Amino acid sequence: MSVLVGRPAPDFTAAAVLGNGEIVDNFNLSETIKGKKAVIFFYPLDFTFVCPSELIAFDKRFEEFQSRGVEVIGVSIDSQFSHNAWRNTPVNEGGIGPVKYPLVADVKHEICQAYDVEHPEAGVAFRGSFLIDEEGNVRHQVVNDLPLGRNIDEMLRMIDALQFHSDHGEVCPAGWNKGDEGMTASADGVASYLSSNADNL
């Protein structure tokens, strides 16, 4: 499993269903996210079990991502037509409804292979999530096995931490949340932070 953190996010062009329901043949990552932060998340298959809970959770927090200037993009090995059918299936029937972000069709498995999240036996993507900064570099990644659903709020926390570091130059200690104290990346900074926060870690 490759670690992409600190490296440029692999670019791709593929068919997709956009957040407005339009089907396109040439969705391009770098054009879509140019100058913006983005979250790309992979999931195994449409019309499955854990997956709809994750996609709905992303959709329910879509405005929170947008308010932070972050694009959200989902990817699986299903076709754009399967994505479209799933979007048009009501939630109470196992669908995801009209989610507000693009779903990319990785039918040739090229994207999940480029991000190194393809399951070696099942031939579908693990639940991989990648936070990309405005320069197109991966700053955070997490990969879950197929039965383990993601915590979408943790991705929002990572976005806030990255923004805090960008704004203030300080680093974010364990369990940091928006509004918490940061840490100066020095011996004195560590000592100062731990002297008042060690008991709460």
Tag the structure with descriptive keywords.
201 residues; alpha/beta; 7-stranded mixed sheet; 7 helices; 31% helix
Alpha plus pi helix count: 7
Share of residues in strands: 15-25%
SSE-based structural type: alpha/beta
Backbone CA Rg? 18 Å
Helix content: 25-40%
Q: Roughly what is the average pLDDT, rounded to an integer?
A: 96
Largest sheet: 7 strands, mixed
Order of helices and strands, N to C?
EEHEHHEHEHEEHH
Question: What gap, in angstroms, lies between the N and C termini?
Answer: 30 Å
Instruction: List the uncertain runs.
Output: none
**Total strands:** 7
Strand arrangement in the largest pleated sheet:
2-1-5-4-3-6-7
Inertia-based shape: elongated
What does this structure look like?
- The chain is an alpha/beta fold.
- Helix content is 31%, strand content 20%.
- The chain has helices at residues 29-33, 50-60, 62-67, 80-87, 110-114, 152-168, 187-197, and strands spanning 13-17, 23-28, 37-42, 70-76, 103-105, 127-132, 138-144.
- The chain has a 7-stranded mixed sheet.
- Strand 6 and strand 7 (138-144) form a beta hairpin.
- The two termini are 30 Å apart.
In a nutshell, what does this entry contain?
With 201 residues, this protein is α/β, with parallel strands linked by helices. The mean pLDDT is 96. Strands 2-1-5-4-3-6-7 form a seven-stranded mixed β-sheet.
Sequence-ordered SSE layout with sheet pairings:
Blueprint: E1 13-17, E2 23-28, H1 29-33, E3 37-42, H2 50-60, H3 62-67, E4 70-76, H4 80-87, E5 103-105, H5 110-114, E6 127-132, E7 138-144, H6 152-168, H7 187-197
Parallel strand pairs: 3-4, 4-5
Antiparallel strand pairs: 1-2, 1-5, 3-6, 6-7
